Amino acid sequence: MYTQIDRTLGADPHFGAADAIEARNIARYRLGLTVLARRFPDAADRFERLGKADDAVLRPFLYDPVLRNAFEDDLLALENHRDDPSEFAAHLAEVDLDAEDGLGPCERLMTPRRRPWASRGVGWVWTEVGPESAGRPLARRLEELKDGTFADMRGARRISPDEELVAGLSRGAELLAELLPYAGAGVFPHISLVGLARAESDDGELYSLSGGDPLPSALFIAPEHLRDPWMTAEILLHEGLHLKQFDVLRTGSLVADPGHEIEIPWRLTPWSLTRVLAALHVYAHMVLFFAAAGEAPAELRERFGEPPVTEDVGVPTPGSRAAVEGGYTTSAERAAYLGQQALEVHGGALTPAGRRFVEWLMDAAASLAPSVRANVAREPVPSSAPHVPQPDPRGYRKIEPVAVCPLPEQGQLLAFAPDTAKFHWLNRHAWMIYALCDGRELAALQEQYAQHTGSDPAGLASGLAGLVAAGLVEPVVG
User: Fold this and answer.
1) Which helix (H) or strand (E) segment is 77 a member of?
2) pLDDT digits (tens, 9 = 90+) for 337-362
3) Which pLDDT belongs to residue 402?
4) Phi-psi sector, 411: left (phi>0), alpha (psi -120 to 50), beta
5) Which of 108, 257, 292, 429 is the most exposed place for a label (fewest CB within 10 A)?
6) Helices (H) then strands (E): counts for the chain
7) Distance CA 199, CA 132 (A)
8) Is the pTM of this model over 0.90?
9) C-alpha dist (Å) from residue 390 to 253, 383, 437
10) Which residues contact 80 (CB under 8 A, 6 or more apart)?
11) Rounded CA separation 73/65 (Å)
């Protein structure tokens, strides 16, 4: 059974397939470079050169922690209509765009250079910055982002790995990929930097953490957990899933109202709904991990030792309700609680994609642990459609300047709205309507629409309203 769920969680085109998620992120990166080239003409040449590069050349730049942080900051400043100088352009000016070694800019600073799963992604180990690079702005910024990631922890310090620790990291990665060839191996393309560190928080000593927005595509592991391949594999899956979700969220929102907070029985402080979805993402996959570990073939046990004998995923924080009353120590228990909260209590704060995301995770986990869905009702489909205004008879045209990036293999078009400076993902239906908005009158637009889809006035009106709301088309004036 677990092999089927491995495929379900690892091959879903929206939330699980690493190649599809990466393709959308590369498309967003290319379009972002086009937009930033318009915004910063002094750096346009470098932006345009990188934007025209092959995917294999783009990938190490996209997943470089410092450059990705700067790229996202530039896009956020653009969206908020701030006139900040481009940090991304400044860092890009430091690097050699013509290098053919396949290394990312920060990886190129390392001495020695180590890739723990060279055939599965662009992941590299933070060893030491070479003395010739220590004073460079790129190296200083990498340290700043690392310090910010550990800002809420005590006694944080990075550990320089020896060959034994790097080998332990590689063994854990090998185990994870062989145990779960879809959902497990699918996290590696989302991991760039792997660092070792020790620190302490209110929840106890550091096991691991992922960078997210402050340090994208990066994770840290306490070095003592690299001695056991099963523990290493579990941590790589856990933190790699967080980084995968980071990439998913760059290409579509899951939460419509991020202000919601939810009480967590095994923690002292409430979590945002966004964090609840991130934890549910991990715990649903951990149900799969422990099921697969329990049925691990003899060959894996001989190579990597015996799998864990417990499915506990963490100790409740002292003083929390779970620490006093018990429970909420397994992935199934935590997934059941988080899923119920997300769907039944706060379902109205999810986007349609967010509801599909939760249902997908809950269904997969419940196939292996029925208790996950025992008390969680399926989210009802809304019974009435929102009011849609009548289309303007004058017709519609695209708002200039047009900036788009098509992904025909996924049936999506990525479009940039110039007035709001936001990216929008259009499905095949919205893409087709967008293409028809070339200034023609509504009657001609309706005729062409009917030839493509049949007579569906409501579908056309709804699609046009969505494109107008997104700032991509406007009624023809005069």
Assistant:
1) helix 65-79
2) 999 999 988 888 999 999 999 999 99
3) 85
4) left
5) 257
6) 17, 13
7) 29
8) yes
9) 28, 21, 16
10) none
11) 12
Question: What is the amino acid identity at position 281?
Answer: H
CA–CA gap between residue 106 and residue 163 (Å, rounded): 20
| Percent of the chain topping pLDDT 90 | 82
* Helix residue ranges, H only, 40-64: 44-51, 55-62
Distance, CA of 99 to CA of 50 (rounded, Å):
12
Q: Please report the pLDDT score of residue 383 as a whole number.
A: 46
How far apart (Å, rounded) are the C-alpha atoms in residues 235 and 240? 8
Residue 402's φ and ψ, nearest 5 degrees, are: -75, 135
- Between CA 243 and CA 237 the distance in angstroms is 10
Closest listed residue to residue 403, CA positions, set 30, 26, 67: 30
Interior angle at CA 48, CA 472 and CA 416, nearest 5:
10
Q: What is the structure's pLDDT at 259?
A: 80
For 151, phi then psi, to 5°, come to: -60, -30
Tell me the CA distances in angstroms from 88 to 57, 148, 243, 337, one per residue in order: 17, 18, 21, 41
Instruction: State the Cα torsion 57-60-64-70 to the nearest 10°.
Output: 20
Counting Cα atoms < 13 Å in the Cβ hemisphere of 50 gives 31
Q: Which two tokens stand for residue 77?
A: 């400043």
CA distances from 211 to 176, 238, 280, 359 (A): 21, 13, 18, 26
Instruction: With a cut of 70, list the residues of the chain below it in pLDDT.
Output: 376-386, 455, 478
Residue 40 has which token pair? 């910063």
Residue with tokens 């951990």: 286
Q: Which amino acid is at 36?
A: L
Q: What is the DSSP string of 323-383?
A: HHH----BHHHHHHHHHHIIIIISGGGB-HHHHHHHHHHHHHHHHH-GGGGTT-PPPPPPS
Q: What are phi and psi of 247, to 5 degrees?
A: -70, -35
User: Does residue 401 have a cis peptide bond before it, meaning omega lies within 30 degrees of 0?
Assistant: yes
* Close Cβ partners of 88 (under 8 Å, ≥ 6 residues apart): 36, 67, 70, 71, 73, 74
Please tell me the distance from the alpha carbon of residue 242 to that of residue 180, in angstroms, as a whole number: 17
Q: Report, in this order, helix, strand and coil percent for the chain, each rounded to 5.
A: 50, 10, 35
Give the angle subtended at the CA of 208 by the CAs of 206 and 210, to the nearest 5°.
125
From 381, 345, 412, select the one nearest 28 (Cα to Cα). 412
